[in-house]
């Protein structure tokens, strides 16, 4: 089971990269907006969300190729969220995926527009799903996970972080929205595209919810690490007085929390056999990740 995610990623990552490229072809040499979009979308991310869409689809018994539009759409929303997260008005970051942030290269106005256009493109891509009813359901799932009750809501709470004194429950709610919502949506989209039976769909949604929270807990733990390995500036949360689990509970308790979330994520997969091994090994990888 341990290497299942590694093997699956090896098989699926080239397909994801070429699909992303295909959904965002280079424009004319003068097309600065497309260039700015491509700069962020095609830069070397871990592609956890699209992998999760495809692996959830496969665990449900579907063919990963059918879930590719949904996988790429989520990665586009994610890239948009990162471009905006790095803007001077938000986290004001210079480094992302080992390269200068989008606004450092293209300027703030173009970076804002590149984010906006990636968001719009994500829904254009979902319209490629052949069955109209499935496409509609995907649109709803992704829109809800992104907007006023999803990632954007979480970012809004995060931005108030420096002045707010959040309780543990409030920080958890923030994490669930800011990062958890898109990751949970990835698992649900995969289940939907793989025609998962209700019991399995429910299990995948719960799994996505647990690893979504886990992902931000480990992101906060890694913020204390090393910029070169992370490909982004370490130490930002402390410098900007962000409200994180690390700040509230300390590193040791945070690691215990991460282990408990991982265990819960694994338990949600008990209704599956070996077809969910890659998802099991993904949960462990997220817990133990170093970037
Ligand atoms: C970073 O996400 C931002 C968070 C939501 C925590 P990732 O760690 O998935 O970033 P990439 O896509 O690999 O660059
Ligand atoms: C960002 O959280 C979550 C997003 C919605 C992009 P962070 O601000 O902690 O992400 P990093 O650490 O900059 O990648
Ligand atoms: Mg942020
Ligand atoms: Mg940030
Ligand atoms: Mg962070």
List the helices and strands and how they pair.
Elements: H1 4-23, H2 32-41, H3 48-59, H4 68-85, E1 95-96, E2 99-100, H5 102-106, H6 108-126, H7 132-146, H8 151-159, H9 168-193, H10 198-222, H11 227-230, H12 236-239, H13 245-249, H14 251-268, H15 277-288
Antiparallel strand pairs: 1-2
Helix pairs in contact: 1-3, 1-4, 1-15, 2-6, 3-4, 3-9, 4-6, 4-9, 7-9, 8-9, 9-10, 10-14, 10-15, 14-15
The chain binds 3-methylbut-3-enyl trihydrogen diphosphate (2 copies) and magnesium ion (3 copies).
Residues 85, 91, 93 line the site of one magnesium ion.
Describe the overall structure.
This protein has 291 residues and is mainly alpha-helical. It has helices at residues 4-23, 32-41, 48-59, 68-85, 102-106, 108-126, 132-146, 151-159, 168-193, 198-222, 227-230, 236-239, 245-249, 251-268, 277-288, and strands at residues 95-96, 99-100. Strands 1-2 form a two-stranded antiparallel sheet. The radius of gyration is 18 Å and the shape is globular. The mean pLDDT is 96. The structure holds 3-methylbut-3-enyl trihydrogen diphosphate (2 copies) and magnesium ion (3 copies). One 3-methylbut-3-enyl trihydrogen diphosphate (IPE) is lined by residues 81-82, 85, 91, 151, 155, 178-179, 219, 232.
């Amino acid at each position: 089971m341990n290497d299942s995610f590694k093997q699956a990623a090896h098989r699926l990552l080239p397909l994801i990269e070429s699909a992303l490229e295909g959904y965002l072809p280079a424009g004319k040499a003068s097309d600065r907006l497309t260039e700015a979009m491509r700069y962020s979308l095609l830069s070397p991310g871990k592609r956890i969300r699209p992998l999760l869409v495809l692996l959830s689809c496969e665990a449900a018994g579907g063919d990963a190729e059918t879930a590719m539009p949904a996988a790429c759409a989520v990665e586009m929303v994610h890239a948009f969220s990162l471009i905006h997260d790095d803007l001077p008005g938000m986290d004001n970051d210079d480094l992302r995926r080992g390269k200068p942030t989008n606004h450092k290269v293209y300027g703030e106005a173009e970076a804002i527009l590149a984010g906006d256009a990636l968001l719009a493109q994500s829904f254009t891509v979902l319209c490629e799903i052949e069955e109209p009813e499935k496409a509609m359901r995907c649109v709803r799932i992704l829109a809800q996970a992104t907007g006023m009750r999803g990632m954007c809501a979480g970012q809004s709470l995060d931005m108030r972080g420096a002045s707010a004194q959040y309780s543990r429950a409030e920080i958890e709610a923030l994490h669930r929205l800011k990062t958890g919502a898109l990751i949970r949506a990835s698992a649900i989209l995969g289940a939907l595209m793989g025609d998962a039976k209700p019991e399995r769909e429910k299990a995948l949604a719960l799994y996505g919810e647990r690893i979504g929270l886990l992902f931000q807990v480990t992101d906060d733990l890694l913020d204390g690490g090393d910029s070169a390995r992370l490909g982004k500036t370490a130490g930002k949360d402390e410098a900007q007085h962000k409200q994180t689990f690390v700040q509230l509970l300390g590193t040791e308790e945070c690691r215990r929390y991460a282990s408990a979330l991982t265990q819960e994520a694994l338990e949600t997969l008990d209704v599956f056999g070996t077809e969910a091994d890659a998802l099991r090994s993904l949960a462990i990888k997220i817990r133990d990740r170093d970037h």
